[in-house]
Hints:
Layout: H1 3-21, E1 28-35, E2 41-49, H2 50-56, H3 65-68, H4 71-84, E3 85-89, E4 97-104, E5 108-116, E6 123-128, E7 139-146, E8 149-155, E9 163-166
Parallel strand pairs: 1-7
Antiparallel strand pairs: 1-2, 2-5, 3-6, 4-5, 6-9, 7-8
Amino acid sequence: MGPVIRTLVLAVALCAAASSAYAHRLHAGLTDISVNATTGELEVVHRLYTHDLHPAIGFNAIDDTELYETREGLLRLGAYAAARFSMRLQGEGPLALRFVGAESDGEFTFFYFVGDAPEEGQSVIIDNRLLVDFHPSQSNLTNIRLGEDVQSLTQGPDSRAPGRARF
């Protein structure tokens, strides 16, 4: 391979590496809240980009088995999410959410919580601060699905104020 071709190949490789490094500029999370029709339990599912989450919790191993498949790793994940997401009945205390697990599909990490569902008509204050302490540009969308009705709350760099939803 001649020097011109070698230089061209190197330039293309560097451009590809640079573009992949900048490919993910959006820091966003998604939370879905619903009431399980069978059990009547409130279900909360958070979805975060795994490559944003791992550095935020100080995890830098290549093999994430210890994080997702050990009791200690799962407790670490649950504690992180529980400390940064809350729901409370308007005028009352917090809703108790119980961490039931987490998993990674590679690109995303999913967190699962359950709790007692609010009564119909009750207002709930939701504060979703997942990853905002690590990524100041983090935006979190929370969808509350009640049958066919979906209420959405967004907390982002322009507004970190908790939102209200009615059950």
